[in-house]
User: Fold this.
Amino acid sequence: MVTWAGLQDEAPRIAEVFARRHAATGNLCMLATLRSDGFPRISPMEPTLFEDHLVLVGMPGTTKFRDLARDPRFCLHTATTDPYVGEGDAKLWGEARNLQAPDLHARFAADLFERSGMDLRGQVFDPFYVADLTGASSIALVDDQLEITIWKPGEGERVEHKA
Assistant:
C-alpha cells in the first residue's frame, strides 16, 4: 500500500488525471464503502490532497465513516459528468487508515481555514482517514483514443489504447 505521494511517484498519469478531475468538480468524488450487511454503499465526498496524503474528510459519525471503521476497504471515483469521458476520470482503491498525528492535523486545519474559511483549528480529528492505496486506474482521451491506465504498487503503470 502507498500514500498519495507514492501514487504520484509510481503512477504519474493516474495521479494527474485524478488531481485534474478532482479539482474540476470542486473536489467532489464518489466513495464506495461496505455496509455492515456486506452490500456496497456509494456516498459523495470531497477528499483533500494534503501534503503526502489523500485525506478522506467529512462529517464525523456519518455512515460512510462507520463503514470505514468496521472495514477500511474503499474505492474512490472522480465525479464524471461527460458520458464520453472526454475529460477523463480516475478510480483509486485501498484501505482507509486513521492517522493520528496532531501536528499534521493542525497543519491540515490551518490549510482548510486558509482555503475555505472553515475553522476547525484546535479541534481533535478522530478519525482522520488517509488513503493507503492498493490500486488505481484512469481513462483519458488522447489523440482521439481512449488511454486506459492501470496501476498496482510496485508494478508501475500499464497503458492500453482503445480506438
